[in-house]
Design a protein that fits this description.
single chain; 245 residues; alpha/beta; six-stranded mixed β-sheet; four-stranded antiparallel β-sheet; 10 helices
Length: 245
């Protein structure tokens, strides 16, 4: 057994109403690794994130998911969370009516004050705020990232964390990702942002439900910018074009 392998996805398919949304996905994430998954909208990135987390309605049609050497394909989202997997959604999770202090105290291994400071929010101003519409989307996203930091999970899946944020918040998110790695967490980063993707030396490119390339980040991002954005994942990428990578 390779003890450096935290997560292994083997020959995974996901089918809805007779249509393959994901096809023959094979992926390995090592301990302490940051692995961006890049692709245009609609390529299956967020679906893959939901399957790894085990969300309702996202059980693979076939294939296996191995985490820390254990087959978790049939485990619930709660069981996976207990094993150390967490997912931060593109739209922050809804925990209406509880105070930020309470939210950041759930399974925390870092003080709420420390976590808020790290994401650029003054604890004196936010600790007793209620999670409701009085907080902006950007504030909610920062608070969710503070929560992820505070529980120090083994595997973090960040689904489009840069969506709808400003440049200052982008820098904070990148700092959070580096801190997660420093604390020993592995990070799967779902994105279509060139800046977010270049946080790691290697990345994964998805197109039309397939992983079409893994490897050098700079080369794949150059390919993505040149071919994928104009293609729109409508058809299969030409093998000759892929071989240019």
């Amino acid at each position: 057994m390779d003890f450096d392998r935290l997560l292994e996805i083997k020959n995974l398919y996901f089918n809805i109403n007779g249509k393959d949304i994901l096809k023959d996905i094979n992926l390995t994430v090592k301990k302490g690794e940051i692995l961006p998954i890049i692709g245009v909208n609609g390529t299956g990135k967020s679906t893959l994130a939901s399957i790894i987390m085990g969300l309702s309605g996202y059980k693979p049609t076939r294939g296996r998911i191995i985490f820390k050497g254990e087959d978790i394909t049939d485990l619930s989202v709660t069981a996976r969370a207990k094993l150390g997997i967490t997912l931060a959604w593109q739209i922050p999770a809804n925990f209406e009516g509880i105070a930020v202090r309470e939210y950041l105290s759930i399974n925390n291994k870092m003080s709420p004050e420390e976590a808020l400071n790290f994401v650029g929010l003054n604890p004196k101003s936010y600790m007793d705020r209620i999670l409701d519409d009085s907080l902006s989307g950007g504030e909610r996203k920062r608070i969710e990232l503070a929560s992820v930091l505070s529980i120090k999970p083994s595997l973090v899946i960040l689904d489009e964390p840069d969506s709808g944020i400003d440049i200052a918040s982008m820098d904070i998110i990148l700092n959070v990702i580096h801190e997660l790695k420093k604390n020993g967490s592995s990070v799967i980063l779902v994105t279509h942002s060139k800046r977010m993707a270049t946080i790691a030396d290697k990345l994964v490119l998805m197109c039309n439900g397939n992983i079409v390339k893994k490897g050098d980040a700079k080369k794949i991002i150059k390919f993505f910018e040149h071919y994928c954005k104009s293609c729109g994942h409508i058809g299969k990428i030409d093998e000759g074009v892929l071989n240019e990578l």
